[in-house]
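Ticket opened by: R.M.
Priority: normal
Category: complex prediction / small molecule

The reporter submitted a protein together with arginine and asked that the result be attached to this ticket for the collaborator who will pick it up next week. Submitted input follows.
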Amino acid sequence: MTNTTNDHAGHQTWGGRFSESPDARVAAFTESVSFDARLAAHDIRGSIAHARMLSNVGVLTDDEFTQIEAGLNAIGARIAAGDFSWDPALEDVHMNIEARLTDDIGALGKKLHTGRSRNDQIATDIRLWLRDAIDALITELERLRTALIGVAEREADTIMPGFTHMQVAQPVTFGHHMLAWEAMLARDTERLRDIRKRVNRLPLGAAALAGTTFPIDREMVADELGFDSVIDNSLDAVSDRDFAIEFVSAASLVMTHLSRHSEELILWMSPAFGFIDLPDRYCTGSSIMPQKKNPDVAELVRGKTARVNGHLVSLITLMKGQPLAYNRDNQEDKEPIFDVVDTVTNSVALYADMMPHVTVHADVCREAARQGFSTATDLADYLVRQGVAFRDAHEIVGKSVQHAIGAGCDLADLDLATLRGFSEAIGEDVYEVLTLEGSVAARNHIGGTAPAQVRAAAARARAALA
Ligand code: ARG
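Result attached by the on-call engineer:
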């Protein structure tokens, strides 16, 4: 027996060849409106551009376009006001909006879908949405970079130990350390700008997969929607999600940078280090240990990096087995993309808020640098300037450090006679290079840790942001 009345909501747009409604579990399994409703504003924008183009090429009349545009704008306003009820039986954001348009303006609403498919429609929606998300993320990244540059300027003279292998290596300035993080985020920004170019191409016009028989003007739609170009091949346009994978990969790198930064903030705030403090409002307490103040924001940023990396694996795995062209698998791209955007944008925004308020305990940082023989390389370089070969100088300084460890003091605490016992080349002026201030000031070239260079680098970083 054939059901010809077609009164099931789920049949409204594609039910013609079906004789029964989807099984309830199938309907729940296949619906996407519970998450893709988030694309509504972009979906409406795309539909208006499509309808305007259809009227321009004579597929719709001007009057039909005007009514469709007004109807879509009214629906957009209701969605924005939270005054729209989404129906899971209508599957997705596209059909919910189209069905409502037809309810509102009558049979004319059914003409909107002429010459397009949900396949090119969804690809267009995601690209429009992601383009905005990238712009918002770049804004937050620039805010965080500005914050880091501010801390760098404030702490340009603050001496701390620089580490390799987590062992005290050479003294650096706190400002220099901050600018290292800024440099990573500057590359992240650059990467996102580059990816945005490939996101910003129009799939609409590909229709289901092969293009359409209507005389469409894709360039016009691209122009109206602010796309840089149209995607040439219709099969490619509806099927590939490489632009999203690129974005999530860049987001994963942003999180990796923030996660490393977090790891340092967590260590530095531990009383065992005591280099920094964060305001109470960016920390939380323990329900059992009354004394605790935990850097939970930093720990969660480090933790949330895991889910972003997980989404990256989801998306590349989602693509790998798909033959051309569109497959429903692609519906699974939305939740990872949304969650990545939310996670990375929130993490960067929180860090942008928090970082200007980091308190640096300069005395503790300085003492940690002083205790670790961090100027040993400076002594070796000094000997080289006196004519000693570097490998011999390395050996001489090694012996001096061994002696200082035995004596329980630092290199700068050894008297001249003792030092000269290791090398006759050592003179009274050696103490200038053994000081922490002398050590950092001497690294006075582009990229070096000298306070003067930190100020110059901060100025360059500010100029790059302007
Ligand atoms: N919801 C789908 C997606 O997210 C778009 C609709 C395409 N569906 C279809 N049956 N062709 O990719």
